[in-house]
């Protein structure tokens, strides 16, 4: 990338905890609080439709049961993905990536797509999500950032859409993490915030990448990360931070 086009704050799963995660309702709630960049989790239905869901299974955030990847999108789209959160969101359906793209692009927002494969479908998920992202963001000034904990998903994304920016997600600094991010052609590393002290951030910057932190909900932690040189932060606390001017 010739420049870093993303702001300093991303709303986690749409609006964190104020609305049912990974739904259009959550994105609208985040936007209502002034957020203009969002993060979400994307996996594939049985018929290859990219849609938003964090877990491999449906029980926690929908009224469905079992492995999400075994259902076609026509069945998934009829589930209630809001009632678990509160009665006011009952009946809110799962969101397709296409619907989220329309919302994000229509409002001039930016998106970090976490490619969240069902186990055993890592590369395929990266490939399909990247293909759809290229089409859905065709002509956009700012493309989505594709991130994943799964190197195979990022390899698949690079194979199908090398022009889309990629980021390696980390929950630990395993041996060779920086070299792995480089080998995948990543523009950023997205790490659990406690990992990102000034030394680690300097290593990321020295490799020509940006350092992003998740999931930051405390103002004192946010200030510590900024002091350590972190470039952007992902937060549930959309009602606590005011990112509009960033």
Description:
The structure is a single chain. The chain has 8 helices and 9 strands. The chain has helices at residues 24-32, 73-76, 97-106, 122-136, 151-160, 177-183, 198-206, 219-227; strands spanning 9-11, 37-44, 50-52, 110-115, 145-148, 166-170, 188-192, 210-214, 232-235. Strands 1-9-8-7-6-5-4-2-3 form a 9-stranded mixed beta sheet. Helix 7 links the parallel strand 7 (188-192) and strand 8 (210-214). Helix 4 (122-136) packs across helix 5 (151-160).
How would you summarize what this structure contains?
With 246 residues, the chain is α/β, with parallel strands linked by helices. The chain has 8 helices and 9 strands. It is 30% helix and 17% strand.
Q: What are the main properties of this structure?
A:
alpha/beta; 8 helices; 9 strands; 246 residues
Percent range for helical residues? 25-40%
The tally of strands reads 9
> Distance N terminus to C terminus?
20 Å
Main beta-sheet annotation: 9 strands, mixed
Structure annotation, total helices = 8
Shape label: globular
Element layout with pairings:
Blueprint (H helix, E strand, L loop, with lengths): L8 E3 L12 H9 L4 E8 L5 E3 L20 H4 L20 H10 L3 E6 L6 H15 L8 E4 L2 H10 L5 E5 L6 H7 L4 E5 L5 H9 L3 E5 L4 H9 L4 E4 L11
Parallel strand pairs: 1-9, 2-4, 4-5, 5-6, 6-7, 7-8, 8-9
Antiparallel strand pairs: 2-3
Helix pairs in contact: 4-5
């Amino acid at each position: 990338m010739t420049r870093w086009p993303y702001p300093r704050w991303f709303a986690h799963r749409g609006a964190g905890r104020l609305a049912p995660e990974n739904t259009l309702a959550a994105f609208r709630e985040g936007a209502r609080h002034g957020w203009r960049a969002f993060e979400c989790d994307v996996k594939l239905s049985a018929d290859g439709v990219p849609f938003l869901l964090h877990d491999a299974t449906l029980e926690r955030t929908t009224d469905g049961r079992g492995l999400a990847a075994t259902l076609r999108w026509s069945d998934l789209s009829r589930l209630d993905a809001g009632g678990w959160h509160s009665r006011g969101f009952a009946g809110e359906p799962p969101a397709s990536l296409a619907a989220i793209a329309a919302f994000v692009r229509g409002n001039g927002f930016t998106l970090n797509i976490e490619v969240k494969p069902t186990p055993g479908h890592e590369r395929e998920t990266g490939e399909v999500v990247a293909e759809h992202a290229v089409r859905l963001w065709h002509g956009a000034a700012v493309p989505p950032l594709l991130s994943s904990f799964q190197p195979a998903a990022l390899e698949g994304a690079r194979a199908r859409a090398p022009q889309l920016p990629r980021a390696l997600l980390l929950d630990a600094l395993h041996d060779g993490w920086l070299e792995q991010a480089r080998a995948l052609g990543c523009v950023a590393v997205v790490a659990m915030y406690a990992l990102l002290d000034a030394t680690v951030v300097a290593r990321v910057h020295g490799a020509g990448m940006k350092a992003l932190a998740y999931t930051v909900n405390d103002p004192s932690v946010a200030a510590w990360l900024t002091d350590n040189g972190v470039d952007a932060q992902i937060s549930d606390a959309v009602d606590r931070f005011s990112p509009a001017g960033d």
